[in-house]
C-alpha cells in the first residue's frame, strides 16, 4: 500500500499521454476493454481513490506477481449477521459424543454468551487477457475458515440485492480456478463486461476512461457480490483527472 | 460478559479466548503434504500461526493458519524463522500439529497431556529466558486433527495454552488508552506504536515494553531491554498485540505475559497496554490500558513444576469440542469437473439461450440401445449437453476394428477377446466425466425374423421383460443398433408407453435421424384434455388414435413408411442393410443431430406431441430459441445435403399402429414371440399384406420418400 501511494501520482501523467497516443490515435470507437498496462494504471487509480474517500472497508492492495503481472486484493470484508444460528448448516452431523471434554473450571476465561456468525469475504480484481477486462474473483468463509458456497451462505449474504441476482446477465457467478492462487474462487464471468462498460462510460468520455474505469466497473460488479461501494467513488474523479490530462497534452 | 461489564476494583480479570481460523489453503497444502510426504507418519510437525492486533471494533482478530503455516520441508525445524521479518498483519506464532490417521486415534489423543506438554514448554521458555529473545513463544499453540482425505473433511481442535495464575489476576483499572493518557502521551504512544509496527525488525514482536517519560514521550522496547526500563519516574506499560475487540476484556495473550512477568520479573502490580488498531494505525480509543494485581503461584517456585493450564478452544457453538471443516466443494476434483462442465452450458444460457432448461437436461434419463459408432457418439453428445443419466445397452464386445470408429473405446478395451461394450463404454464415460451416472446393460434385443429355438425361449422372454423394464424406467430411448429389425420391439415398447424415441440409422453415405411420434393410446390421455376415457376403455372401444391430442396427426415412427414387416435384413430392402460399411463421418453427424433433436423436444412445450416442422428457407424464421423441431432429417454426404421431412403415422405400421399396440397389450409376450418367429404375422395383422397385393409395384426407399410427405 505504501509503495502504491508513492508511485501512483508519478505514473499518472506519463501514462496518460502514452494512453492518448495508443488508444485515442486509433480512430475506432472504444470497445469497452482495457489493455493490461491500462489495467495496472486503473488499479493504482482505484487504490488511491479508495484511500481518499476513506471507506470503512479495508484498503485495496496491489499484489505483484511474476512477469510484471498482479492483481488487486481487498481482504477481510466482514459480513455480520446477528441473528444467524449456524448449527447444522453445513450438512454434516457433528458427532460430539466421545469428544466433549471437561476442562478444569477457570474463572479467568471469558465465556462467550452470544455467538455472532461472522462471514469473511475476500475480493480480488484480476485482469483477463482473453476478455481484456477486469474480472472480480471472491470467496467467503465462516469465521472458522469453512468456505461458503452459493447454496450455503453466499446467497443469503447477498440478500439485499435479490433483484440484481435475478438478472443473470451481469451477475453471473461461477467457481473457477483463481489465475494466481490456483484454487477455486467464485468469479463474475467477464463475458458481458466490455459491452456494459461501453454503455456505462459511453464513447465520448474516453479521455478519462482509464481512471474511471475500475471505479465504474466496481460500482456495478461489486454490487452483484454484496460489496458496498461508497457512492462518491466515481462521482468526483472526472473533474479531478480532466486537469491532469490537459496538462499532459500541453506538454 | 455481564460480570466483567464494569472494571470494578478487585474483580477477577477475564480474558477473551483466542479464536482460530484455518484458511482452506492450509488444509489443501496439508493434504498434499500428507499424501506425498508424510503418508502414515503421525509424528507431530511444527506449524506457524499468524495473528495481528485487532483492527475492527466488532470482530476480534483470529489466529490464522495459511498454506504458509506449513514449512516447505516438514523435517526442517523452526519454520517460524522465515516469517520473522515482514508482514505486519502476520505476526508469526509457533505451533505444533498432531495429525492422526484415523478418527479413533484422533479421539483417543490424551488432550489433557498434550496441553500440559505445551504449557510446560512455555513455562520452560519463561524460566530459561528464551521469551526475552523471542516473545512469540508465549503464545505457542497446539492443533490436533484428523484429515479425511477421501471426503475432503478435516476434524480439528485448537488449544491456546494459558498458564493459570492461582489466585487469578484482579483488576485495579481498565479503560481506553485515550482515557488513561493525556493528549501528548497518547499521541506519542501512537506514533511509537506505528513505528514499531511498520518496522520489519520489530513488527513480529507481539510483546513489548512501553515507557512514557515525564515529558510525555513514549518509547517502545523489546522485552530483552527490561533493565533499561526500570527506575526513573517514567510510566511502564507491558504492551502486547491484542487480537480481542472487546472494550472490557483483554485478549488471551496477556495471560502468559502475566505469567512471564511474575515468574521472571517478580512484579505483582502490572500496568498493561492492549494494543489495537484502526485502518492500519494505532487506535488509542480501542486500545486499553489497565492495571492488575497478580501473585506468583506457590508451586511455580519449583522450576520442575507442571503448571496448571487451560486453553482448548470451543467449537462454533461454544462447546468444548472439535470442529469440522468440509472442503469437498473446492477440493474434490470431481465436483470441480462438474461445475466446469456446467459453466459452458450456463454461459450458453446466458449469452444465447435464456430459456435453456439445464435441469430438464440433467435430470432426463436416456437409454441408448446400441453402443457402437452411433451409441458412443450419442453418449458423448449427451454429456456435452449436460445430460447425466445414461444407460447403454449392447451385447457385443469391443473388436480390434472398433476403437478407431467407436469413440468411447481404446485399443486396451479390444484386447483379450474384447471387453463387453456395455461395460467398457460406461468405464470410459466415467473416465471422461466422473459425475456421469452411467450404467451398462449386456443384453441382446429380440428381433423379428430371427426365430427363437425352443430351448432359448425362456431366455428371450427374460430379455424381453428386461428391455421392457428398462424402457419403462427411462424417459428417452435412442435406437442406435445396426439392424433395422432390432429397432422393432423397442419402437413398439416406446409407442406403448409413450416414450420419446429417437432413431439414427446410417447407409454408406446417407443417414436418417428421426423422432418417433406419440403412441396411439397414451397421446390423448397424457395431455389432460379432460377425456374421461381410460386406456383400457379406449382400447376396447377401438378408439385408438392416429391423431394427437390437439387433433393433428401423430408423427410416424421408423417403421411407419415401410410396407414390409421387419425381417432378417439379409434381404435388399432397407437403409440399414449397408450399415457396416459407412463413411466414417456419418456416425458423428447423425449422432449429433439425434441429440440436438432431443434437446429440441425437451424444450418444446408439447414434448413428444410437438408437431414436425420443416426447414424454412427464410433464415431465422422460427419462433423457438432453439429453432425448428423437425420430424426427420435425412442427409447425404455424397451431396453434402440435408433435408427435413415430415411423415405421419401409418395405420398399417408394424410397430406403432393401434392394431399392433393393442395386440401387444392384450397378448403380451406371446404376441412378441409370434412376431419374432413369424414376421409375416405382423404384415397380416396390420393389413400390409393386403396393401402389398393391391400395389405390388409400389416400392419405397428413402430417396423418393419425399413424395409422400405431406406439407412439403
Automatic annotation (TrEMBL), chain A:
Q: Which terms in the GO cellular component ontology are assigned?
A: cytosol
The family database entries (InterPro entries) matched by this protein are listed as: Atg3/Atg10
MF GO annotations: Atg12 conjugating enzyme activity
- Alphabetically ordered keywords of this record: Autophagy, Transferase, Ubl conjugation pathway
Q: From its record, what is one biological process in GO terms?
A: autophagy of mitochondrion
Pfam families given in the database record: Autophagy_act_C (PF03987)
Q: Would the keyword Transferase turn up in this protein's UniProt record? A: yes
Q: Its family?
A: Belongs to the ATG10 family.
Record-given protein name: Ubiquitin-like-conjugating enzyme ATG10
Protein species of origin:
Asparagus officinalis
TrEMBL record, chain B:
Provide the alphabetized UniProt keywords.
Answer: Autophagy, Cytoplasm, Protein transport, Transport, Ubl conjugation pathway
Compartment annotation: Cytoplasm; Preautophagosomal structure
Among the entry's GO cellular component annotations, what is one? Answer: phagophore assembly site
**List of catalytic residues:** 579 (glycyl thioester intermediate)
Positions of the Ubiquitin-like modifier-activating enzyme Atg7 N-terminal domain:
13-331
Task: Tell me the subunit arrangement.
Answer: Homodimer.
The role this protein plays is:
E1-like activating enzyme involved in the 2 ubiquitin-like systems required for autophagy.
Q: What is this protein called?
A: Ubiquitin-like modifier-activating enzyme ATG7
